[in-house]
User: What shape does this take?
Amino acid sequence: MEGELKLLLRQFKHKATSTYSYLIASKLNNAILIDPVKEEIKKYQKKLKEFNLELKYAIDTHVHADHITALGDLRDIYDCKTIMGEQSKVNCISQSISDGENLYLDEIRIKAIYTPGHTDDSYCYLLNDNKKQFLFSGDTLLIKGNGRTDFQNGDPSLLFESLHEKILILDDETIIYPAHDYKGFKSTTIKEEKINNHRLSMDKNTFINFMNSLNLETPKLIDIAVSLNKECGIIK
Ligand SMILES: [Fe+2]
Assistant: This one.
């Protein structure tokens, strides 16, 4: 996917939890990591070194329940800013962001969009690179799916509203990079999801009933992950 982009963008996969993390860098070699995983830090370090990048920001789209975040470690190693939404109520981060706020990495603008539903602290991040637009959709919109709504104050009604009122209104060509994929897909677009994601064609009541009847297994690490992630992944 890199060949078609002006900016540097790399996708990493944490195989054990099918989590995607993203490294984005500006023309001035400043970088940002989105949803980095503690166990994968060496991979990020290698890539940062390889491209001679300076890590400025590490962002989590929400408090994750299935893996431990790398935010605290990255802050300690690189002295980067750690960022989450104001609703996360995570004290260890260096900056809270709110709905509609912009973050700048040189020529790159990253807009925070509050999208509650999967959790009550979920954000998507919209990145513009002149010609193209990318959405790092966390667990709000997945490829042919969406995040579950059965823990961390999840709410299918709010997720429906976030998806339809804040995400599907974006340009059809917007490229979506989710925080997970369990089938090997790497990215999608708004247009493709409108066609392929059957959950998006449901009316609100059908969607709510569908989400409430999923009966998914609880993530193995949930108790450890949520409390550790509120400490930026640093074991005390
Ligand atoms: Fe999640």
